[in-house]
Amino acid sequence: MTTALLSVSDKTGIVEFAQALHARGIRLLSTGGTAKLLAQNDLPVTEVSEITGFPEMLDGRVKTLHPRVHGGLLARRDFPEHMAALKEHGIDTIDLLIINLYPFAQATAKADCTLEDAIENIDIGGPAMLRAAAKNWQDVAVVIDPSDYAQVLAELDGAGLTRKTKFGFAKKVFSHTAAYDGMISNYLTSLEAGAEDKTADVPAREEYPSVFNLQLHKVQGMRYGENPHQSAAFYKEAQVANGLLAGWTQIQGKELSFNNIADADAAWECVKAFDVPACVIVKHANPCGVAVGATLLEAYEKALKTDPTSAFGGIIAFNRPLDADVVEKINANKHFVEVAIAPVITPAARAAYASKVNVRLLEVPVSQAVNALDFKRVGGGMLLQSADNVDIVGEIKVVTKLAPTEQQMQDLLFAWKVGRFVKSNAIVFCKDGMTYGVGAGQMSRLDSARIASIKAKAAGLSLDGTAVASDAFFPFRDGLDVVVDAGATCVIHPGGSMRDQEVIDAADERGIAMVFTGTRHFRH
Ligand SMILES: NC(=O)c1ncn([C@@H]2O[C@H](COP(=O)(O)O)[C@@H](O)[C@H]2O)c1NC=O
């Protein structure tokens, strides 16, 4: 390896890396700003303009777009005719390319970014060199990630960069340029009509671009998908926001399955919604026990009471560090869980779980972060929407003669929070920071109401004095009658039905308190 070309926008670590290359006898070529920085640090550097015979021009739009650069990158060293062409035209080979591109993402994230600014931040020469070098990966190593600098130096000190490393770098490059172009496409196709006539303005943008590009990185292949005859793999975003499930650290247990991950996400999203110690137990993507308490132990014991039968083999999530006392209780209850999730699993809790080798333990930092967009696959298409991450929009309105007491209001708000994480139609009975009955995923709200009360009875729980949340309005009074017959004394739902008055009259007639939220929380 004799010659390296360095051309970076983000100059972090570049001086040290260039020093290390120089110390290994590698000649340094570089573009304007990068070359200047290297020279300031006493490194002998040849400017690209010296070898092209052209100054960098057009405000940097043309720097490296020249046969002396691209010939040096693209010539196959094992093709005599390629090498002869280089010799004929006096072109030297370039063996190592170190690049990062104009920061389009950072530029367009700024509130005052005009269309002109955005366009100027589209790198042209960089991707061209990246693609050239990556295409010729057998002869040229191309490094875009500063975290790879150390590996490059280590391999240079050995037998030279391996084919595996160079091919890995080439794959990384094409994924990177695909993501870079995807980002540009998302930006440009989100501009509102007429942006092209006002390039000096900050352009108005549609929420959803006309072409949507998304890049995901494979985390793991899976033994199977939702069912054993389905294949599956798990992918995640390049940058997972702190607090989202995909940022998990697995402490113990077998590999997570497709259903484990889907259910873990449901449990984690629900438990994160609470700001006091909380426990959520999920089965088949629905909470079958949710509770808050003064301690996690109390929250766990309450959550388990809702539906101990369904809780067996479920996914359990906590929003506070999980300590040994809770794990010991889980073990004493012979409560088998597939996955346990918490922001921290203390060494004592890990020790208490150590003998249950099949239980997957995940740590995920707690935060209020949610996915910016929610996706749902349909045949030949994809639905995109923003996250359903509001508890209540607007004011809660008491619509009955009877207003809820302070305690009832607390129970109603708890039930409403839980209801957001229950598949529609959702009916949730709650009291004292705990779910008493969960009716999920029924085609009729009436059936969800009936199922919730049947399940509560099966768990030996009385629904007397409970608060009920319904994820959408009661279209008729019948659903309301079912929950009041079961023992509920207050109800929260969005309202907005044609027959609101019929339902309000029914609530008054039955002597319960009812509030409207004005917000619906369907979940499919
Ligand atoms: N136009 C070109 O020929 C060209 N060649 C390299 N660049 C980019 O220029 C940047 C480095 O510039 P400088 O070394 O002048 O700070 C890199 O992000 C590199 O990707 C170019 N700039 C943009 O297209």
Bound small-molecule species = the ligand NC(=O)c1ncn([C@@H]2O[C@H](COP(=O)(O)O)[C@@H](O)[C@H]2O)c1NC=O
The appropriate CATH architecture of the largest domain is 3-Layer(aba) Sandwich
Q: Given this structure, which CATH class of the largest domain is correct?
A: Alpha Beta
Distance N terminus to C terminus?
Answer: 57 Å
Radius of gyration: 30 Å
Q: Structural class, please?
A: alpha/beta
Low-confidence region ranges: none
Percent range of helical residues: 25-40%
Q: Mind telling me the CATH superfamily name of the largest domain?
A: Methylglyoxal synthase-like domain
In terms of DSSP E residues, the strand content is 15-25%
Whole-number total of structural domains: 3
CATH fold annotation of the largest domain? Rossmann fold
Q: Which strand order does the major sheet show?
A: 8-13-12-11-9-10
The helix count comes to: 19
EC number: 2.1.2.3, 3.5.4.10
GO molecular function, one term: IMP cyclohydrolase activity
Protein name: Bifunctional purine biosynthesis protein PurH
Domain MGS-like: 1-144
What descriptive keywords fit this protein?
single chain, 524 residues, Rossmann fold, Cytidine Deaminase, domain 2, 3 domains, 6-stranded mixed beta sheet, elongated, binds ligand FAI
